[in-house]
Amino acid sequence: MGFSPDHYVPVLKVKRGEMKALRLISSSIRERITPLLEIVQRSDSSRRWRRI
Predict the structure, then answer these.
(1) pLDDT of residue 10
(2) Residues ≥6 apart with Cβ < 8 Å to 39
(3) Distance of CA 6 to the CA centre of its chain
(4) Which among 7, 20, 25, 31 could bridge 3 via Cys, Cβ 3.0 to 4.6 Å?
(5) What stretch of H or E contains 31?
(6) How many helices (H) and strands (E) does the chain have?
């Protein structure tokens, strides 16, 4: 797989805001990026399920 010089590979943490931003990107920009998603563990202080 090769990318052109104007191809962008952002490293994003998998969080609600980042995922929403990826959904809102226009199709012309979407074809020029390949996000690399970093999975993060929630802290124990939040009473929500952890995602690993």
Answers:
(1) 92
(2) 14, 51, 52
(3) 19
(4) 7
(5) none
(6) 2, 2
In tens, the pLDDT along 1-52 reads: 678 889 999 999 988 889 899 999 999 999 999 999 998 877 666 555 555 5
Q: Which residues contact 28 (CB under 8 A, 6 or more apart)?
A: none
From 20, 1, 24, 15, select the one nearest 34 (Cα to Cα).
1
CA–CA separation, 37 vs 30, rounded Å?
Answer: 15
Residue 45 DSSP SS3: coil
How does pLDDT run across 25-37, given as a tens digit for each residue? Answer: 999 999 999 999 9
User: Is beta strand 11-13 parallel, antiparallel or unpaired with respect to 36-38?
Assistant: parallel
